[in-house]
Amino acid sequence: MSVFSFESLRCKLPHQLAHSNFICECALKVKSKIEIFSLTFYKESNMALKLFNTMGKKIEEFVPVDPDKKYVGFYGCGPTVYNYAHIGNLRAYVFLDILDKTLTYLGYDIKHVMNITDVGHLTGDADDGEDKMVKTAEERHQSVLDVAKFYTDAFMADIDALNIRHPDVICKATEHISDMIELIKKIEANGHTYTAGGNLYYDISTYPDYGKLANLNLDELKAGAGRRKVSIIDENKRNPGDFVLWFTKSKFENQAMTWDSPWGRGYPGWHIECSAMSMKYLGKHIDIHTGGVDHIPVHHTNEIAQSEGSFTPEERAEGPWVKYWLHNEFLVIEGGNKMSKSSGNFLRLQSLLDKGYDALDYRFFLLGGHYRKQIYFSWDAMDGAKNGRAALNARVAKLIQKANSEENLGLTKENFAEKLSKIDSDTKDNLKRFEEGLENDLATPIALSALQKESNGKGRKASDALSNIFKMDKVLSLKVIENAFAELEKQTENSSKADDHAGDSEAAEITALVEERTAAKKSKDFAKADKIRNDLSARGITIIDTPNGAIWKRN
Predict the structure, then answer these.
(1) What is the topology classification, in CATH, of domain 50-349?
(2) Residues with Cβ < 8 Å from 104, sequence gap 6 or more?
(3) Hey, where are the domains in the chain?
(4) pLDDT 10s digits, 467-505
(5) pLDDT tens, 344-381?
(6) Alpha-carbon distance 194 to 102, whole Å?
(7) How would you write 130-175 as a 3-class SS string?
(8) pTM, rounded to two decimals
């Protein structure tokens, strides 16, 4: 038995109703009298959301840090806006979007925070190399802020094209310098820092759990050995794995953006921004942190050390900074190499659009692979995704026609959301499979397969199938029904053009041949049907098969 106050019950009901069989005793105070009553809710499946936690390397049931909190808080590492995002980068944000929308679908209120790095990220994650923002600004002969705005706008356009929901909070590093400074002061007060050569460093030897996320050995890191590559280029470091919290002029003589601080005028190290901004918007203990697998050994490892290094004893006793760590794998290309801006070996989303693909073709392609598995990009794979999505849209278009003609549903592109949201389908086998896929560590291949199967409409009313598809697409976000209506409009337009044969002296003959071909197909005389199509094609005439029958037009 669980006891809830009326207020906490009100917050918990949406998730509990949808995803648990439970009995709760609720205390409701009415006119100073406590009345106890029981509520029982049932659901066909007892499954709960399970996620693979990189911290511990195992699947765990998702339980929020604070069940009484009004939201699930999660933080996703955002882009460093010194260049366009490549399609490998964008895989991470499609994964984030699936997590965001799955949590929402399962009834959780969420608060999703993402940073924009516009200062401090060097070309090497471990404090080596040039500042990425400054390097691009010099190459483009622009200010750093102009570069940041240009590539931030380009990034936002890409995620819009991929139908990715904007995070609830998008925070720029340059607008949170004071938050970083205050956090660094706490880390310093707890004895985790030292100053050398003008820079303030985090001493990893002061944090015993350093490297736990990546299974790194602290003693090996101190000696510069181990599995993590550590570039020993900074003689000021006591340990090769130490990292900078605050840079001063000793690092770069002509740094474009600097701020006053207790350690001198300078700028923050890359890692500190995520700790400071996540804590500002989500609190000291957050539910989920995400990023690419390349962030595990350095960036996220350092984030943990500095975040928990800032804790008071009381905060430390309440638990870790992050409860669940989720990481997506690389998009790889021919030769098994990951895409990389530093090597120049990358494709932008615009590169795909220029070749005739839709951004949602790429989303469809990504959903076919699990986020924790490498996915291999090729143009053949993109062709398959494009054709697969087109076939899906065409099947849903047929369902719309059937629902309107046989059930008189009256669906339009303006009212489908309102109408379909009110339908409670009697056949939910595919919807259940879809939900189980998502609840099993966001298994989008299973969820996508369930959507494909539902689009066949077998064994159910068209309206029921469309209602289930509408629910599924709230997470998969392929705009299936919108695109199905676009497909119907295209068919109507083609039909209108094809039927306009006034003044064509051969119209009657051609129409008769098209009808003859239709009859041949019905009688399974495919050789004859193909011959008619080929003969007409040789005369410059194209036959278009539509749900309403075959039509023709001159090329």
Answers:
(1) Rossmann fold (3.40.50)
(2) 110, 474
(3) 2-41, 50-349, 379-487, 500-554
(4) 999 999 999 999 999 999 998 888 776 655 555 676 788
(5) 678 999 999 999 999 999 999 999 999 999 999 999 99
(6) 43
(7) CEHHHHHHHHHCCCHHHHHHHHHHHHHHHHHHCCCCCCCEEEEHHH
(8) 0.81
